[in-house]
Amino acid sequence: MIIKSTVFVLGAGASKPYGLPLGSELKQEILDVLDEDNASNRMVIELLAKAGGKEYEKTKLSMLRKTLSDSGDGTIDAFIETHEELADTAKRVVAYILLSKEIRENVMRPPTKEGQASDWYAEVLRIMKADFAQFTSNRVSFITFNYDRSLEHFLYTALSSRHRSEVTAEQWADVIRQIPVVHVHGDLGVYHELGKDADRDRLGYGHKISDLSVRFAGSRINVVHENNAAVNANYKLAHELLRLANFVFFLGFGYDERNLRRLQLDQCLDPLAKVSGSGVGLTSANKAQIQQVSNGKIHQNHILSFACLQFLKESPMVRQIYEIR
Fold first, then answer.
1. Hey, which end of the chain has fewer CB within 10 Å, N or C?
2. Residue range of the domain that includes 78
3. Do 85 and 231 belong together in one domain?
4. Which residues, including other chains, have CB under 8 Å from residue 283's CB and lie 6 or more apart?
5. Does 248 reside within a domain?
6. HSE of 245 in the Cβ direction (CA atoms, 13 Å)?
7. For the segment 40-70, what is each residue's pLDDT rounded down to a tens digit?
């Protein structure tokens, strides 16, 4: 059970083991799916044009592909920041691609990479181990920069399968709702099984993709530069969680300067809070820069060159947050 107040901050690398793309990969997938010369894309482009709801949406899709290809931006978020006229179209394409990647089997049985396990969700659940009556005593929350709902799907599917004769799926859903999962930049819809019957924002994981679902999911996506009420409210929730944290762990996070600054670690964190994170492929210079941008809250020596699962198993800090019951 997690007995120390712990916040996991998730970036795109955290969803990667479950079939979701990194930022650079998402950009390439957008270019690929909008390639009109590929006959297999025609039905998708028609669906995306219909999702836009305007006669000239197909023209905007073509414009999006050319402009994105020529932009030099490494990610779609960076592109949207300077191409607001294409923002809504781009968000719908992002929604389509991510919805198509929300595959139930990839979450519950993620493929191994080069023979190595990568299922860090299962490791977190192992650390949280507790029976139904004690599960909400886990002092854990998640701040995610990802739009997908793979974490919610894993928690609901894994937990609702337990002790079915004694605890119903709806009872487990009530428990899981008490675990804060804040999507600071929006999501593809409220995870269906965790929403209420009257909640119009629900969308199932692995839901059949249609122009309506793409339009809906795209409308819920925000990017870092957008200063709207939803983004501000989500960051407020994130700041409140960080203020209560004894430990903060960054998993699969790219340490983008804008994202780090908006978390306001120097203002929110208790001086005694401990911070660490995964950092596959980061150089010593990269880590020093992260320490500087975070005003020393993320010390370069505490960024470990591990993927998410290895980080959870080998980080000395992680071993301080839980006890096995």
1. C
2. 23-101
3. no
4. none
5. yes
6. 31
7. 999 999 999 999 998 899 999 999 999 999 9
> Long-range contacts of range 106-109, CB-CB < 8 Å, 24 or more positions apart?
106/18, 106/19, 106/150, 107/18, 107/19, 107/150, 107/153, 107/154, 107/157, 107/205, 108/154, 108/157, 108/158
- CA gap 199, 96 in Å, rounded: 22
Closest to 140 in 3D by CA, of 236, 233, 244: 244
Closest CA to 64 of 187, 258, 218: 218
C-alpha distances out from residue 128 to 139, 252, 314, 323, Å: 9, 20, 17, 9
d(CA 109, CA 123): 13
241: domain CATH number is 3.40.50.1220
Q: Which of 79, 101, 123 is a domain's end point?
A: 101
**Token representation of residue 263:** 């978390």
Tell me phi and psi for residue 10, to 5 degrees: -110, 135
Give the pLDDT confidence of 86-109 residue by residue, as tens digits: 999 999 999 999 999 999 999 999
| Enclosing H/E stretch for 183 | strand 181-183
**Neighbour tally for 275: CB within 10 Å:** 22
